[in-house]
Design goal:
61% of the residues lie in helices and 6% in strands. The protein has a two-stranded antiparallel sheet.
Length: 174
């Protein structure tokens, strides 16, 4: 059975700080690891030799195998638009009275946005993904989300852009 991978503390640190300066393909593979998809599902969205990238990340301590997955396409399919992730609801309610978002909720939101964009646009989004990851607050994040929505509209159509804006942009813009 295929393994499901998740980031380790070292992997999270690498995403946040680029301390080890992973090669772009390894970094992209690391970003795609989400604790939900198995190696086969990751291979569908990961550029290049995904199996080798996952092996390298595993050997380097950036990811770990958490479970064996039953072979299913449900793991690889993107979250339906109707299913609002709990994070988005939490992020919207995690704002203190000052309008700032809780740092943990913001970090999770950034990860979810990047994962969503890479699933739909692939590695072409890496530059924007880095800027999203580096956004320290919602004011910095908002223009990057607007740009991402426009890229989705240009590359994948209005329906996908509208889904993105409803799911993510509306949370940050409020």
């Amino acid at each position: 059975m295929p393994s499901i991978y998740r980031k380790t503390a070292r992997g999270q640190l690498e995403i946040e700080s680029r301390v080890d300066r992973l090669a772009p393909r390894l970094r992209t593979a690391l970003i795609l690891v989400d604790g939900k998809r198995d190696g086969a599902a990751l291979a569908k969205v990961c550029p290049g030799d995904c199996e080798a990238a996952l092996a390298t990340l595993h050997a380097g301590g950036y990811i770990e195998s958490v479970a064996n997955a039953a072979p299913t396409d449900a793991v690889a399919s993107p979250t339906p638009a109707a299913a609002t992730p709990a994070l988005v609801v939490e992020a919207a309610s995690a704002r203190p009275a000052t309008g700032a978002m809780d740092p943990r909720a913001l970090a999770q939101l950034r990860r979810d946005v990047v994962r969503h964009l890479i699933d739909r646009l692939g590695p072409m989004i890496e530059g924007l993904a880095v800027r999203i990851e580096q956004s320290a607050n919602t004011e910095q994040l908002l223009p990057h989300l607007q740009r991402a929505g426009q890229l989705l509209r240009d590359q994948r159509g209005a329906a996908m852009a509208d889904e993105f804006e409803q799911r993510f942009l509306s949370v940050v813009a409020t």
